[in-house]
Design goal:
Elements (H helix, E strand, L loop, with lengths): L1 H16 L4 H6 L7 H11 L2 H16 L11 H12 L8 H14 L1 H8 L1
Helix pairs in contact: 6-7
Length: 118
């Protein structure tokens, strides 16, 4: 549900960015948004608070070296399922060990081979 909301909010922000002035933004209302809600969003997207948060998030994304590539499963769930399949349940493994294993598996999967050949 959160993924759908974030996609919807991103689509509204893209619609907001398509127009240069607030008058154009307000006159080009998205189909699935009420006028009062759109007025609030135009004000919010143009606020200094939103711009500061947006800029900070852009900078943080650029600093990321490793992107999350496990799909919707968390690293903890991947680690647990990997340990059940491949390892002794008595041994504990670090996140870097599990991450290395995931990369090893991904490189040998069909998707990983396609990614490496591009």
């Amino acid at each position: 549900m959160q993924r759908l909301f974030r996609a919807w909010e991103a689509r509204l922000h893209n619609h907001y960015c398509a127009y240069s002035t607030d008058e154009d933004k307000l006159s080009n209302l998205p189909e699935d948004v009420e006028l009062e809600d759109w007025k609030y969003l135009v004000k919010y997207f143009g606020s200094e608070k939103f711009k500061v948060i947006s800029e900070r998030n852009k900078n943080n994304r650029e600093k990321q070296i490793t992107k999350h590539s496990c799909g919707t499963r968390s690293f903890a769930k991947v680690e647990e399922s990997t340990m059940k399949i491949h390892f002794s349940p008595i041994t504990t493994y670090t996140c870097s060990c599990v991450f290395s294993l995931l990369n090893y598996i991904a490189e040998r999967s069909t998707i990983g081979r396609k990614r490496l050949t591009r």
